[in-house]
Specification:
Layout lengths: L6 H17 L5 H5 L8 H13 L3 E2 L8 E2 L1 H11 L7 H12 L6 H16 L2 E6 L7 E10 L2 E8 L4 E7 L6 H15 L4 H18 L2 H13 L8 E4 L13 H13 L1 H11 L5 E4 L11 E9 L4 E10 L4 H22 L1
Antiparallel strand pairs: 1-2, 3-7, 3-10, 4-5, 5-6, 8-9, 9-10
Helix pairs in contact: 1-3, 1-4, 5-6, 5-12, 6-12, 7-9, 8-9
């Protein structure tokens, strides 16, 4: 059997995965033979399953047990076999009502409501993250003279966010100098993210060494000193208790480790930052090395907000055997709905 799976092999792989998703137990050839659309003998199914195991799509936890899908098999199923439908109307209505019912329209309240609804509908843990400050798009900077040797630097992002920082500066600088610096920096840095601002300043600093322009060099040094350090965006986690019901997590020590990762949130933020860098729904499977710190789990995520500059990301985290055909449309719909709500606020 070639690496390009035959229709028979795809049928059996799909049947094994469907049974494994439903029951969380290894699947035997006799079980597969009883599925209505398979119509193959247990012996034939056994041979195909053995081939799939040899190719790395199925695994056998114990010699006498049936097979379970490997991460490679699950990835192939997701990319090449699974069909994803639109989210059912009932779930759409439930999600819209959950977000419309917020007494406050603060962004934090909307995102927490989205997480609760996403967790409730998917019956998994849900995470929602606001983009970290480094993803904010720079609008302008104001430099204010406080006293000799001390300057207030005000960074304003396109969405209205403000970050202030007091920095030390040359004592001979006055407000006229700072206004000149501001005009130069605003022209140089317009429409860049804070991350891109840092890169641009570093490049310009290198160039200014050869220009010997004292005014511009001082402006660049001041801006570089004042730039806010890297910080994480806010992360909301809902529905961790859903994982307790999954048979994969009956080990209390393992469950405690997962909850600790949720509590620390740095792992979740790294995962959702990856999501913001890619379009569409993303699926991160543990054994592929994408969910560092969340071993044994899979994440289905999507960014929300602008396509070129997302406002954040959200998703569902659960066992690798989650029903992707159901979870993917839930995540996709929620991300698009949250994006529209935030856009309507601007």
């Amino acid at each position: 059997m070639s690496e390009e799976l035959s229709q028979r092999a795809k049928l059996i792989l799909s049947a094994v995965i469907a049974q494994y998703i439903a029951n969380a137990e290894p699947v035997g050839s006799r079980t597969v033979s009883k599925i209505r659309n398979v119509r193959l003998s247990p012996a034939t199914i056994r041979n195909v399953m053995a081939d799939l195991e040899e190719m790395g799509y199925l695994g056998q936890p114990h010699v006498s047990a049936g097979r379970i899908p490997t991460p490679k098999g699950m990835r192939f199923y997701i990319n090449s076999i699974m069909e994803v439908a639109e989210l059912d109307l009932g779930s759409q209505v439930r999600m819209r009502r959950a977000l419309a019912a917020q007494p406050s329209q603060e962004i934090k309240d909307v995102l927490q409501a989205a997480g609760r609804a996403l967790s409730g509908i998917s019956r998994q843990a849900a995470v929602v993250a606001v983009a970290p400050p480094e993803a904010d798009v720079f609008r302008h900077v104001d430099l204010v003279h406080l006293r000799a040797g001390l300057v207030l630097v005000v960074f304003v992002s396109r969405d209205g966010g403000v970050q202030n920082r007091v920095v030390e500066a040359d004592e001979d600088l006055n407000q006229d100098d700072l206004d000149k610096f501001s005009r130069y920096l605003n022209e140089l840095l317009a429409d860049l993210t804070l991350s891109q601002v840092k890169e641009r300043l570093t490049r310009e600093m290198a160039l200014e060494k050869t220009r010997f322009d004292l005014v511009l060099s001082r402006a660049l040094r001041l801006a570089q000193t004042a730039l806010p350090g890297r910080g994480g965006g806010e992360v909301f986690v809902e529905g961790q208790v859903n994982l307790i019901q999954a048979p994969e997590f009956t080990d209390v020590a393992r469950l405690r480790q997962i909850f600790q990762a949720f509590e620390e949130k740095s792992t979740l933020l790294r995962l959702l930052e990856k999501t913001m860098a890619a379009p569409g729904v993303q699926i991160y499977i543990d054994d592929e090395g994408e969910v560092d710190g969340l071993e044994g789990l899979t994440a289905v995520t999507a960014s929300y907000g602008g396509q070129d500059q997302p406002s954040g990301a959200l998703g569902v985290i659960g066992p690798t055997r989650m029903d992707y055909s159901q979870v993917i449309p839930i995540v996709d719909f929620t991300a698009r709905l949250v994006g529209r709500i935030l856009e309507s606020r601007d």
